[in-house]
Design a protein that fits this description.
The structure holds 2 protein chains of 2 kinds. Chain A is an alpha/beta fold. Chain A has 16 helices and 9 strands. In chain A, the strands form 3 sheets. Chain A has a 5-stranded parallel beta sheet, sandwiched between helices. Chain A has a two-stranded antiparallel sheet with strand order 3-4. A two-stranded antiparallel sheet of chain A has the order 6-7. Chain A is elongated. The longest helix of chain B is centred in the middle third of the chain and has 29 residues. In chain B, the strands form 2 sheets. Chain B has a 6-stranded mixed beta sheet with strand order 5-4-3-6-7-8. Chain B has a two-stranded antiparallel ribbon with strand order 1-2. About 8% of the residues of chain B have low confidence. Classes of the chains: A alpha/beta, B alpha/beta. At the A-B interface, helix 1, helix 2, helix 10 and strand 9 of A face helix 2 and helix 3 of B.
């Protein structure tokens, strides 16, 4: 029974994401489904431009949740990611409340008594009103849940990872002055990484590990179809085939899905009906981002187009 | 099923995927969610929860395919030797799903359950029985290939081989043709069990076997390892390098403050009449290792030098800079070759340039002093790797003394055992007087310790 539900639910995830224009492979859909069911973050790894960030956006749009994004960079710290005290507001309030303070403390005879009264007064200046929530705390405070995207976690320092551990495993943070803040509704957390550095085992252990590679030809065609609907079928097949040939080359930066989509748009703009050497040569800079790569690909263009068209006939 | 998953986790560990208890709990929860009916989903779910990198995913995927290939009856398995039964057999297969269905129209009165099962040719039932019997014989405990026989016989016993033998004896007199068929089926069963055990060995024993092999390899003399082991040894050296990098690349945040700096404190507080409001402290200076490696690449030492250079040059994160020199009869700098080329190519090139000569420590040291003495700084550790057998030529120990004076430490690694030092043309005792440390370095383990100690002195 439950098992039957699982496979239909995974299909539901797939179609739900597809409705948002994100064509997910079976593995991606399984990961999204599992992360909801067992409340675990997903760590997405893969080359740039295969739709890691896009996945988080699609999930947010599909489930009608707010997306909170935390872009990681070197030097990102607690104050920018988690929370910060509003120092200026604290100072301002103490100034404004000076008179009031005088009144409160007026009755005290001795210094000791004044101190006692101040204690009773409580830690007004370290209360919720003076906390400036940053993305991580914001995500925990969303009443209806949200999608928290922690983008390019590999760019942050190793210390920052440790900061995330509490949030990732228990969906809570501890602020020394206030205590522990737990999530109202556990957010769906997506972490992305370009594998610039190896992440710590502790972080990886807390996540589902999803690797998104370059998609298969069929899947990529469907992606192009969903993103650039007004491209003809023959051209779509040809260009995707051509890109798959290009990826077999030893290049500095292989073209990924985002480049495929860009190229499809360019080809539609140029009103191309099918690939030829001329048009590919003119638009190659959309696909390849390094001069050396373009030079390496140049002599192969004609053969690749021929191959792509041939596979087209059989496909 | 829990039992099966646990066995899968063990198999996964065998395949080199680190499965911690917490991860196995996650995997259990995930499996409880997705269920077992759809194998691709189960596979995806396990891969998502257990594997933590792309390599692990590949290894785990293979492991999954191997593991769950068990319950499926394989097509080629020679269940029936009687060829005329083959067609009937395949017809029968889909209809007889359950294991309890026995006999199937055969004259099977008074036979044991195993005999009945074998005669009924029910592949599903047989493989299910093999699987449960291998569970009973705790096949997952298998560790070495030599245990194959004992596990096979345990499984067969658990399936009721004894009863089958009795049946066979009885049938031999009453129904010889049936006995013949049964004997054929038994042979096929033995084969199936042997396959199962081999598969179990592949699944569960890999980790153990690998550990054992690594252990042997670590303690094998580097100079005498066989050609086929060279690649494995390179992998092992890379592992060692990774371990050393992890241990030493991150300087521990240790207190770097030293003693009170009296002079600077006085100067800083001159404005207050010398009353020390502000204190100044000396800082302990720590530098990263600078290494000059001088390696003998003649004859017997070449292999050791090869691995040593590979190790030293893979310590980028730990070591500030490495200058490597190789010599047999004369000396050249080889850092550039080692940095640019793959280990195999680099070694081949070095050998073609200076290798295979008879070693002459004296003239090589002269070469070093003449051209490369300037690479030495007071922070440098000089490592000489060689057997100090100079073919009775002048050892020029005086140059080694000057090298020692110019550098922080001079470490001599000798692949030969201590006993051999000083005998024949070995100049080791003479050189040893100028060395900070002399140690034997014949195996990968000794190599690791030596390099580890050298790096540790800088921490």
């Amino acid at each position: 029974m439950a098992e039957q539900k699982a496979s239909t639910s995974i299909e539901a995830v797939e179609s739900g994401l597809a409705a948002q224009g994100y064509i997910a492979s079976r593995q991606i859909a399984t990961a999204v489904y599992l992360s909801q069911q067992i409340e675990k973050p997903i760590l997405v790894e893969g080359p740039a431009g295969v739709g890691k960030t896009e996945l988080a956006k699609a999930i947010a749009a599909w489930r009608g949740l707010k997306m909170i994004r935390l872009q990681c960079y070197e030097g990102l710290d607690e104050a920018k990611a988690l929370y910060e005290w509003k120092y200026a507001k604290q100072l301002l309030y103490t100034q404004i409340l000076k008179d009031k303070l005088g009144e409160v403390l007026g009755g005290a005879q001795t210094l000791h008594a004044a101190l006692e009264q101040l204690h009773d007064f409580g830690d007004v200046f370290f209360s919720k009103e003076f906390v400036e929530p940053r993305p991580l705390l914001q995500a925990l405070e969303q009443p209806g849940g949200c999608v928290l995207l922690i983008d390019e976690i590999d760019k942050s320092d190793a210390e920052f990872e440790s900061l995330l551990l509490e949030i990732l495993s228990d969906f809570q943070v501890t602020i020394p002055e206030l205590g522990t803040v737990s999530a109202v509704t556990p957010p769906t957390v997506i972490l992305t990484s370009n594998s610039e550095r190896d992440l710590g085992d502790a972080l990886k252990r807390r996540c589902l590990h999803l690797h998104i590679g370059f998609p298969e030809q069929r899947l990529e065609e469907r992606i192009v179809e969903s993103r650039v609907p007004n491209i003809s079928q023959t051209l779509r097949r040809q260009m995707v085939g051509f890109i798959h040939e290009i990826r077999s080359l030893d290049l500095k930066k292989l073209p990924s899905v985002s480049e495929t989509i860009d190229w499809a748009r360019v080809l539609v703009l140029l009103q191309a009906t099918e690939l030829d050497t001329e048009i590919v040569r003119d638009t190659l800079n959309v696909l390849l981002k390094y001069e050396a790569d373009i030079e390496a690909a140049h002599p192969q263009i004609t053969t690749f187009i021929a191959k792509a068209s041939r596979s087209n006939v059989f496909g | 099923m829990r039992e099966n998953l646990h066995r899968f986790f063990r198999a996964a560990r065998g395949a080199g995927v680190h499965v911690s208890p917490a991860e196995s709990i996650d995997a259990m929860r995930a499996v409880a969610q997705v269920g077992l009916t759809d194998r691709t989903i189960l596979r995806d779910a396990l891969l998502l929860t257990l594997a933590k990198s792309q390599d692990e995913k590949l290894a785990l995927g293979d492991c999954f395919d191997l593991f769950f290939s068990q319950p499926e009856p394989r097509e080629e398995r020679p269940e029936a030797d009687n060829d005329d039964d083959a067609s009937e057999d395949s017809d029968q297969l889909p209809s007889s799903g359950s294991a309890s269905e026995a006999g199937g129209g055969q004259p099977a009165g008074g036979l044991g359950p195993l005999a009945q099962m074998l005669l009924s040719q029910d592949r599903n039932a047989i493989s299910a029985a093999v699987a449960s019997a291998s569970g009973a014989a705790s096949l997952s405990d298998i560790r070495y290939s030599t245990q194959r026989g004992i596990f096979s016989s345990r499984i067969l016993d658990a399936m009721g081989l004894q009863r089958l033998r009795d049946d066979l004896d009885e049938l031999a007199t009453t129904n010889p043709s049936l006995a013949e068929r049964l004997r054929g089926a038994l042979d096929a069963l033995r084969e199936a069990v042997r396959d199962t055990v081999s598969q179990g060995l592949a699944l569960y024993a890999r980790e153990e076997a690998e550990n054992l092999r690594n252990e042997i390899l670590r303690n094998a003399p580097l100079a005498r390892i066989e050609r086929r082991q060279v690649a494995e040894m390179r992998a092992l050296i890379r592992q060692i390098a990774r371990r050393l990098r992890e241990r030493y690349s991150k300087p521990r945040k240790r207190q770097r403050r030293g003693h009170l700096d009296v002079r600077r404190t006085l100067r800083r507080n001159a404005a207050w009449g010398g009353i020390p409001f502000l204190t100044a402290w000396k800082r302990k200076h720590r530098d990263r290792p600078k290494i000059v490696a001088i390696c003998d690449v003649s004859g017997s030492v070449a292999q050791v030098s090869d691995f040593f250079l590979l190790l030293i040059h893979s310590l980028h994160e730990v070591v500030d800079d490495v200058h490597s020199f190789a010599f047999s009869s004369h000396l050249i700098g080889v850092s550039e070759i080692l940095e640019k080329k793959s280990p195999e190519e680099a070694m081949a090139e070095i050998m073609s340039k200076v290798g295979f000569g008879s070693s002459d420590y004296g003239s090589s040291l002269v070469d070093f002093e003449k051209d490369f003495m300037s690479t030495l700084t007071p922070q440098t550790t000089v490592i000489v790797l060689g057997d100090a057998r100079s073919n009775n030529l002048d050892p020029r120990a005086d140059i080694l003394r000057r090298v020692s004076e110019r550098s922080k430490r001079l470490v001599w690694l000798n692949p030969e055992g201590r006993l051999a030092w000083g005998f024949g043309d070995s100049e080791m005792p003479r050189y040893a007087t100028f060395c900070s440390v002399v140690r034997q370095c014949a195996t990968a383990q000794q190599l690791e310790r030596a390099v580890s100690d050298i790096v540790a002195t800088y921490q």
